[in-house]
Amino acid sequence: MIRRRAAVVAAVSLAATVFAAPAHANATEKTLTHEWQGQQQTGWADAAALRVAVSPRVKPVPSQQKLHGLLGSPIVGDPGTRMRRAVNQALRTSWFELKPISGQLSRDVVLNINNNYPVIVHLADGWHPSGPRGGHHVTVVGYRSGGAEVLVADASAEGTGGPGWETVPRTRWLTAEALTSLVDNYIS
Asked: Architecture of 24-187 per CATH?
């Protein structure tokens, strides 16, 4: 009887080990290894954000010029739809979807980052250092505090986005709530 109980306990322990959740399932923070490159031409924040987004998964990382070509004309189509199509094409996946802001950004960031995918965010007015100037793309490459804070990579930083961007850092931590207040839509 004792041997049988010991065998059952051992089998249950083994099953719990084999079927345990992945190590990252309860992670409170994670940052993707990514390659930052400032935007190479004025108006290419979308191509530069896309380059940061594909860098954890594609080597060598495609040029901004190539990614700009994947995005197509900014005059034709919605920027979010163009970005979703381009990131899925660049990564040869169908993982990414265009999502309106809905309070799920933090959850989507954690899900994506844990699966080694960043989140590309299209920001409405208010991100430019000198005030409202229209939309802008950035890439979320990490989270901490269970998703309450997100690490944003901005390819317009260090002056590459033109005058006024000189003091913007390459990456910065924001609360998910603060980022959500600036978001128009996002690709996750």
From this structure: Alpha-Beta Complex (3.90)
